[in-house]
């Protein structure tokens, strides 16, 4: 009987050893898979971080460039404001306080226009004045409901205002987001 017990015990040990080795092999396979998965996750995470860094660097470079351009533009506008170039454009003004263009003065030197053309020209100037207003030399006001004025402000992104100064009418421009004139 002891012989039988010893055979059973040996068989039990062999089965147990085989079962333990199968479990160890299975655990090792799972560990290898898990390690591979973790390496892939870390690589994907590192790759995403590198892409984000590249995007952030591009955005930073772009914003730095825009900031420099805006600083240069602000400096130019400040220089113009200090020099008084924005409002000191001296020219000939007509009786309405508007600057005369060379075309306006040359037409007087060529002689009188026919009555029909003068009437058409007067109606155009009346339409222009009703649309865009006129600078009144005494009060310095302008019609605020000007389509051209609104379009110009929208396209350029700045608010414009006509101001009458001692040396004549002046156009003042204000950049709304920065508050700079």
- Biggest sheet: strands side by side, in what order? 1-2
Distance between the termini: 111 Å
Q: Specify the number of helices.
A: 4
The structural class is mainly alpha
| Main β-sheet description | 2 strands, antiparallel
Number of strands: 2
User: What's the Cα radius of gyration?
Assistant: 42 Å
Mean pLDDT: 75
Global shape: rod-shaped
In terms of DSSP E residues, the strand content is 5-15%
Helix fraction bin: 55-70%
Which segments are poorly predicted (pLDDT under 50) over 5 or more consecutive residues? 88-93, 101-111, 133-143
H-E string: HHHHEE
Strand and helix map with partners:
Layout: H1 2-83, H2 102-110, H3 115-132, H4 147-156, E1 158-165, E2 168-175
Antiparallel strand pairs: 1-2
3D structure, described in words:
It is a single chain. Helices cover 66% and strands 9% of the residues. It is mainly alpha-helical and 181 residues long. Among the domains are: 1-83; 143-180, no CATH class. Strands 1-2 form a two-stranded antiparallel ribbon. The longest helix has 82 residues, at 2-83. It is rod-shaped and about 130 Å long. The termini are far apart. 1% of the residues are buried.
């Amino acid at each position: 009987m002891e012989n039988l017990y010893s055979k059973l015990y040996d068989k039990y040990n062999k089965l147990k050893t085989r079962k333990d080795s199968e479990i160890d092999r299975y655990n090792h396979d799972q560990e290898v898979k898990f390690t591979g998965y973790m390496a892939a996750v870390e690589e994907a995470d590192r790759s995403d971080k590198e892409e984000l860094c590249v995007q952030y660097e591009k955005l930073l470079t772009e914003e730095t460039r825009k900031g420099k351009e805006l600083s240069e533009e602000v400096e130019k506008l400040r220089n113009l404001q200090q020099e008084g170039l924005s409002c000191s454009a001296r020219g000939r003004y007509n009786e309405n306080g508007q600057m005369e263009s060379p075309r306006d003065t040359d037409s007087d030197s060529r002689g009188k226009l026919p009555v029909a053309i003068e009437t058409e020209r007067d109606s155009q100037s009346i339409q222009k004045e009703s649309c865009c207003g006129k600078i009144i030399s005494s009060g310095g006001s302008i019609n605020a409901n000007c389509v051209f004025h609104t379009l110009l402000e929208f396209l350029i992104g700045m608010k414009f205002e006509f101001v009458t100064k001692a040396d004549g009418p002046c156009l003042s421009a204000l950049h709304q987001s920065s508050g700079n004139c």
